[in-house]
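User: quick one, fold this
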Amino acid sequence: MGNFEVTSSPHLSRDHRSTSLMMFQVVLALFPTIIMSVAVFHAYAVFQLAICVLTCCASEWIFETFHKKYWTLSDNSAIVTGLILGLSLPWNAPWYVAVTASIVGIGIGKTAYGGLGYNIFNPAMVGRAFAMISFATVMGGAAYQYHGDELSGIVTQATPMTMYKSEIKVDVETTGVTSLDLLKKGFVSVHNGSLGEASGIAILLGGIYLICRKNGGWRTTLGMLATVFIMGMLTSPNENALYFGLFYLTNGAVLFGAFFIATDPVTNPITPMGRWYFGIGVGFLTMIFRLFSGYPEGVMFAVLLMNALTPLLNQVTIPKPFGYQKA
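Assistant:
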């Protein structure tokens, strides 16, 4: 009988795709979102993404050299981390925020655990959480509002989640904006937020591509989206429950998080049922943060908390072998 080598994820897929190819497919899937972020935020988006990608790659090279390990830049994971981190930052974050977040994400969130496959937390979210706590002033709600003269009025307003959190309710009499209008802005059109939140359609295009390539944890994605949608409907302040479910679903970082952050193959559970629980947990915690905390958004904290529970989910959701009989 042959010997089997047990290693850390991500593992070789059934169609023999390498880690570098899987990461390259994620980069391709991010292209629609990147294009929309550049179209909305122009050179600011290019600047943020370039800083994050370059710093992440440089940090990985430096930390691996320091630890005397072989360089793994060819697996494209540092590029993916840089892109996701950059897309999660506001357009006007100072350069030192992007640099610090990238160094912390690679150094503490990834290399300190042994590199790709050994980290328990999503590196991009580790970097963003550090930046959000350390640079609270420049990472506040006003940082996500772009006042470009050449842009439409949609993106010169506060973010939809900030508007709702500030009790600017979806009421025609007070704001002149209906829930259906906000739904269109969050899903079909563009609106303020982090670079990756500019267009729901762009995120969906990339996310569907990943699922079709079997490169995304669709159970995690579906579990998260369904939980956010149902909880949004149940907490609706008026009779428009369907619109409020869609409002929470299509605004903020839910779509981007469901397709590109929560589905990280390293920090995700490895069992099918574990991924369902993981996605449901991320969606539940996201809504708890949105409804009861001072933050208008909660995807980042929800993902990090569920990352910590991944080993437990792997343990309690081990499928029973075929033909198993309890002793």
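User: anything notable?
Assistant: The first helix runs from residue 19 to 41.
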